[in-house]
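Chapter review: from sequence to fold.
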Amino acid sequence: MEIFERLSPSYWWTDPGTTVEGPVPIAFAILLGVVIVVAVVAWIIAPRLAPERRLIQRLIARVARWSIGLAIVGLLLLLFRWQIVPFFSKRIWLVLWTFAVIGGGVYVWYYLRKLYPQRVAAWEESERRRRYLPRPAQTGAKNRRRSRRHR
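The token string follows.
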């Protein structure tokens, strides 16, 4: 059966005999290019997307950086597959890239479900404490009291 052939390691570590051609690789390359543009725009305007939520700004910037990196690697893998570069056109790289994309999505889901509520609560608690605790004296500022020497 062909399904069992595709599960063997020799299938994933062999070079494909043909290049990728047709509308599917072109559409995939266009999609990755759009991801790069959207991620750069999101990275730049992250402070404007969530002006009062610093944690969301950080998450947007982090996901944008990951998206840019993964999209560039995806485009390179597509180029290597199109040109049949001996080591980098193997099928295993696409599988590893797919796992990285899925792992990034799982991390974002985990962060929003588990870590984000905890960090928001910790940030609100630190803001509440900061609001009611006295502020330390600023260094380099003139003292109100004169020293004994100047009296």
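Two observations follow directly from the output. The two ends are 99 Å apart (CA to CA). DSSP finds six helices and no strands in the chain.
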